[in-house]
Design a protein that fits this description.
With about 475 residues, this protein is α/β, with parallel strands linked by helices. It is about 30% helix and about 20% strand. The protein is built from 12 helices and 18 strands. β16 and β17 form a beta hairpin. The structure holds dihydropyrimidine-2,4(1H,3H)-dione (DUC) and zinc ion (ZN) (2 copies).
Length: about 475
Amino acid sequence: MSFDLVIKGGTCVTASEMFEADIGIQDGQIAALGTDLSAPDEIDARDKFVMPGGIEAHAHIAQNSATGGMTADDYTSGSISAAFGGNTCIIPFAAQHRGMGVTETLDLYDSRAQGASVLDYSYHLIVSDPTEKVLTEELPAAFKRGITSFKLFMTYDKMLINDAQFLDVLSVAKEHGALTMVHAENAGMIKWMTDRLLAHGLTAPKYHALSHPALAEEEAIHRAICMAKLVDAPLLIVHVSTPEGAALVQNARAAGATIYGETCPQYLFLTREDMDKPGMEGAAFMCSPPLRDKATQDSLWQHIQAGTFDVVSSDHSPYCMDETGKLANGPDAPFTVIANGMPGIGARLPLLFSEGVGKGRLTLPEFVALSSTNAARLYGLLPQKGTLAIGADADIVIWDPAAKGVISAQNQHDNAGYSPFEGWEVTGLPITTLSRGMRVVEQGALHAKAGHGQFLVRAKFDAGSRKGTAVPEQNFDL
Ligand code: DUC
Ligand code: ZN
Ligand code: ZN
């Protein structure tokens, strides 16, 4: 057999096993896993881990924010930062704003992504206006286009939908085999807390954390899970930031419901004390749900180890600390009109590897599951992406477990201009990122051009062996 490229002598890691093998790549796909493979082009991977590239399934790129601005990254800078961080595929959001059609929304994001990304990509569709036409015509059309995941918001005046609308979207998603994702926070509780803080003149960025209480997340996750169970539809709770929220996900899945969970590095590595900075500096750490505390970090790690979370995603949501981003509403704007979110697409995997695998909290296969394989399964990309198997795309990251680095805005390759993880020391770094067998990043240099990345038509959601929930009231013949 002849190959275009062979990765030689590495330790291959998948979500289920580790083995020593060479990887033969031909026409962008994995063609062989074996010993003594050779090709005109070879990469020496001795003493390295060879893993499926990360799949970043929660990122806001070239997206208009709820406060009106635009994210600092477009598909070129966002995907480059992702590639330097060991990712080979990205799934950002295409956001339907009220009054926009879904097809119009997807066409708009196609125009932003086509020819721009260095990595293969898809979008999750944010649905904020589920009209009859959207439900009956446009969501099925989006699904046919290969967009097999939708995101709903339970907060943000411009994005939130009510419970009946939530159930409508879940029903359509279930009918077509799409996975619904939800930003679960109680809008009324946030508004009530915000009004009280503002009435006391408490407008600094750090008060954002108090305005989004943990109970708002707990209540909304509970409600979202109940709605998913009523429809018996799969639901993924994104960016879970509280022990109470995580416990609700854990209990639902233990009962067999098709409920899935995601958490993010910021909830594992930062706390709301990071927001307590002079002037507007704290705005750099504003995200929703907000940063919590040390006890929460410990609990979320326990939930990762217990299998509560399927994915750890960055929720990369980059805004510069200037008038183009966080300070678009003035240098002294109250926290209510500062864009939510922080960059992190390049830091996610080095942090998770160093703090997870390096500190004995995760096995290597667990790292691969959380960073790549589970996302591929949930979002209809397995076995094309997310694994090392014959016939899979050669989307591969070669990881040097001994390499040491310090996370800094200077080495993240995104456009935010800062990193919330500035100064974090990590051991273990991605050194080569291959997309369909092509070097995107090697030894610190970018090799791919904008436009290498292709749109991925995703398959439908597969619940595997989960039995779901039977709701007696759904049986109208009772
Ligand atoms: N929700 C997200 O998922 N990302 C950024 C901000 C937000 O509210
Ligand atoms: Zn969200
Ligand atoms: Zn997000």
